[in-house]
Design brief:
four-stranded antiparallel beta sheet, 446 residues, 3% helix, mainly beta, 2 helices, 33 strands, Methylamine Dehydrogenase, Chain H, disordered N terminus
């Protein structure tokens, strides 16, 4: 057995006991990003219920409706279905039908890479832009979003492209940050596209265009909204709050709600953090909007009270500062019922992070697993599937009463991406490889 095979075997079966994470400036490496799916997601076929067409899944909540997943941790860990070379970058893996798409960097270029779900075979690889370099990590940040046979991708310097899912050909390309005279965010453009009707929405952070919507067909600007707000590192989401559909945007200076039809401002709420590190995606909680940020900032749940043609945001509860119960550094928490499961980072992007369960109605802590480590998470079938900065997969029961770890295994190298789940398969990646694991429960024998 050669060294590479030995390493892979160790990753498949290995159990890591180390929960620490290195580096004080984990800051913005990830919000992971994505968008809300608003239509069929496969080319030539309706969307499957077990697709993962964007970061944080079908409804951009991090929750999958899949069942039949593992209920007990196998002694040897989850089976590895395939492992293939990838490339540098922080993009998540989006899965539609028999195709998995992510963004990578290599050979001095940024690329969109499409793999066969069954085998990991490369189906196509499309050049997007010159390489993107940044002191906090190189390569593209945003995850692809696949809607009706088109993959929408956003590069590290803010170039938005539409690619044909079948063959990877570029339908259109718009250098939005450059064209609107904006400046690339300090740590790169981390937004993933949001499809709303006939438009694609991204944050740009230009002087007169915090948010921009372009035509899905042509890439031409349909509307722009927001002035003098930096882009931040979050991604917009479409949610029904305050009795109406709204685009929720967590920008560099706070959050705002927009009319999805024309970008009209409905409300704005200041939420300033060090380095404009507003990264997590806003959540709809009991007809309110939850915001959370690291850098010792904390969380607030906003009620939206009607005022004129818009709303006045008023905190229902807040938990701020170094005693906060929930400080999402780059992760979006998972809302299951009336509880939030998420990562609480201590200090100014410090290395100490706890896995935490919080009452969503009050902000009070239900339980906390101290020094769990930096990571990300999704939920399915009564379980939390967590990826750690150290490259582990940890499966935890989604139990609001207590922390229950079901098992863990080393899978990849250093990573900030949340896992993707489709058809019982978990997809994880780092700066070198993309891995597919089997999370399905073993077939019952008669």
């Amino acid at each position: 057995m050669d060294a590479q095979q030995s390493t892979r075997q160790a990753r498949r079966a290995g159990v890591s006991l180390s929960n620490h994470s290195s580096g004080c400036y984990g800051l913005v490496w990830w919000a992971g990003v994505g968008l809300l799916l608003l239509g069929p997601a496969t080319w030539g076929a309706p969307a499957r219920g077990d697709d993962w067409p964007q970061f944080l899944g079908p409804n951009r909540t991090g929750i999958s409706q899949e069942t039949g997943l593992i209920s007990a941790w196998p002694a040897e860990g989850l089976a590895e279905l395939w492992r293939v070379p990838g490339g540098v970058g922080m993009s998540g893996v989006s899965v539609v039908g028999d195709r998995a798409v992510t963004l990578v960097q290599g050979e001095d270029r940024q690329w969109a890479l499409c793999l066969a779900v069954e085998s990991g075979k490369t189906l196509w690889k499309t050049e997007l832009a010159p390489e993107y370099r940044n002191a906090m990590g190189d390569g593209p940040r945003g995850a692809p979003t696949v809607v009706e046979g088109v993959a929408y991708v956003y590069t590290g310097e803010g170039v938005l492209l539409a690619l044909n899912l079948e063959d990877g050909k570029v339908a259109w390309r718009k250098a939005l940050v450059e064209e609107l005279q904006g400046a690339v965010a300090d740590y790169g453009m981390a937004c993933s596209p949001l499809v709303v009707g006939d438009n694609v929405v991204v944050t740009v952070g230009a002087p007169t265009a915090t948010v921009v919507a372009v035509s899905r067909k042509t890439g031409e600007v349909a509307w722009q909204a927001g002035e003098e707000f930096g882009a931040g590192y979050s991604s917009p989401a479409l949610r029904r709050v305050g009795g109406r559909e709204q685009l929720l945007v967590f920008h560099g200076g706070g959050a705002m709600g927009l009319d999805p039809a024309n970008g009209g401002l409905l409300w704005n709420f200041p939420f300033e953090t060090d380095f404009s590190c507003n990264i997590a995606t806003p959540l709809a909680v009991s007809n309110g909007v939850l915001l959370s940020a690291g850098e010792n900032h904390g969380s607030v749940l906003l009620d939206l009270k009607p005022r004129g043609k818009g709303f006045e945001p008023t905190p229902r509860w807040s938990s701020l500062g170094n005693k906060s119960t929930l400080r999402n550094e780059w992760q979006t928490s998972i809302l299951l019922g009336d509880v939030l499961f998420g990562f609480d980072n201590v200090g100014n992007a410090g290395p100490v992070t706890h896995l935490t369960c919080v009452d969503a109605q009050t902000g009070t802590r239900k339980w906390q697993q101290l020094r769990f480590g930096k990571g990300n998470l999704i939920a399915a079938d009564g379980k939390l599937f967590c990826s750690t900065l150290a490259g582990e997969l940890v499966v935890v029961a989604a139990n609001p009463a207590e922390f229950q770890e079901l098992g863990r295994m080393s899978v990849v190298g250093k990573t900030r991406q949340a896992p993707s789940l489709a058809g019982g398969r978990l997809f994880l990646r780092d700066d070198r490889e993309i891995v597919c694991l089997d999370a399905r429960a073993p077939a019952k024998t008669k």
